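Aim 2 progress update. The chain analyzed this quarter is reproduced below.
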Amino acid sequence: MDKIIIKDLETFGYHGVFEEEAFLGQKFIITAVLYLSTRKAGKTDDLQESLDYGVACQLIKKIVKTERYQLIERLAEEIAEQLLLTFSLLQSVEITVKKPWAPVLMSMDTVAVNIKRGWHKAYLSIGSNMGDKEGHLDFAIDQLNALPDTKVTAVSDFIVTKPYGDVEQDDFLNGALEIETLKTPEELLEKALSIEKETGRERLIHWGPRTLDIDILFYDDEIIMTDNLKIPHVEIPKRQFVLEPLSNIAPYHIHPVYHKSVVQMLDELEKSE
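Predicted structure tokens:
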């Protein structure tokens, strides 16, 4: 990935834990490495095909000057997020915030925080078999799109499927979404659960009826296995109601564990049944 580098931009702000820092202010030095494709700009000599680093510098200086945070970790996060949300061509950023006058009563050059943040692609499964099923699925899409750090980039056709498990209940309406997000997998899960709850989702019966179900299927090519979160979703190869709509928007996405595409897994599942 190409990059534009803004190195050691000197700024002045009022960030710090101590009262004196908030009152007197101090110097901060910012380095921003901006990852994007510069190919079109390089071939056309057109600024519209690149990122105006002058505007980026002004944005950084404005954040440092007008906001106030106790921690430079928070300042770094805000700079990274605002750059990613402002410039559509940006894929990721690396931000270093240096604090030359850190109050540690010892001789040193600077204290610094370095972070890298960027857009992530995730695939979600959505389903409902209670009340206004299509309305619940549309609500999930609208809520995700309303987030400043998340955008729905593809929506599958909705399909009617029989319920999974032994609990007698109504048929499901299922779909799949492709999203781009700045959220971590854990943050995305937290938001998904919150959206489910807004539709009145109650987890009373395992495999039971639900107003809305949102599952994270894939998150980039990450493999996460914790008590609260498993990515890729462990049931993907067994669920036609997941694979069929997912094949509608991401047929050739490769499972990072089984190294099979979505259409391959769907074909194998249909043959086995």
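The mean pLDDT is 92. DSSP finds eight helices and eleven strands in the chain. These observations will guide the mutagenesis experiments scheduled for the next reporting period.
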